[in-house]
Amino acid sequence: LAVHIQTSRALMVISLLLGFFGIIVSVVGMKCTKVGEEDPVTKSRIAVAGGVLFILSGLCTLAAVSLYAAQVTYEFFRESTVPINARYEFGSALFVGWGAASLTVLGGSLLCCSCPAKERRGQQYYRQSQPSTAREYV
């Protein structure tokens, strides 16, 4: 096979592996699971690590699909003896790949937003009820 196809294939395999490990790390980092540490700061850092893996996976997918699209564009406009009706064109798989890469990067970015702010790290929040003197009686 051509070099660009082999490169795209390798990038997609790397993307799949990063996405798989991103799923596992993100599930461990979710606040609703009992796996791993019970500290919420540690759990959120694990979730951020999963988000980074998802972003890397999306970027690998984007690079693979864009590399293949660039090669198709180059071959289409190159002067050759191949008739126009026998040349490759963009197919729906390229658009699905671009959409999947975009959604994967968006999901990873949302996971990265779960990192607690520096001023909130050591604080615990408790729900306070209203004192009985604050109630109005009619």
Detail the poorly predicted runs: none
Question: How can the largest sheet be summarized?
Answer: none
Helix content: 55-70%
Total number of helical segments? 3
The mean pLDDT is: 82
Order of helices and strands: HHH
Shape: elongated
Organism: Spheniscus mendiculus (Galapagos penguin)
InterPro entries: Claudin, PMP22/EMP/MP20/Claudin
Family: Belongs to the claudin family.
GO molecular function: structural molecule activity
Describe the 3D structure.
There is one protein chain. The chain has 138 residues and is an all-alpha fold. The chain starts with a helix and ends in a 26-residue tail after the last helix. It has helices at residues 3-29, 40-77, 92-112. The model has no long low-confidence stretch (mean pLDDT 82). It is elongated, with a radius of gyration of 24 Å.
Keywords:
membrane, mainly alpha, 138 residues, cell membrane, 62% helix, Claudin, Claudin-19
Could you outline the blueprint of secondary structure elements for this entry?
Blueprint (H helix, E strand, L loop, with lengths): L2 H27 L10 H38 L14 H21 L26
Helix pairs in contact: 1-2, 2-3
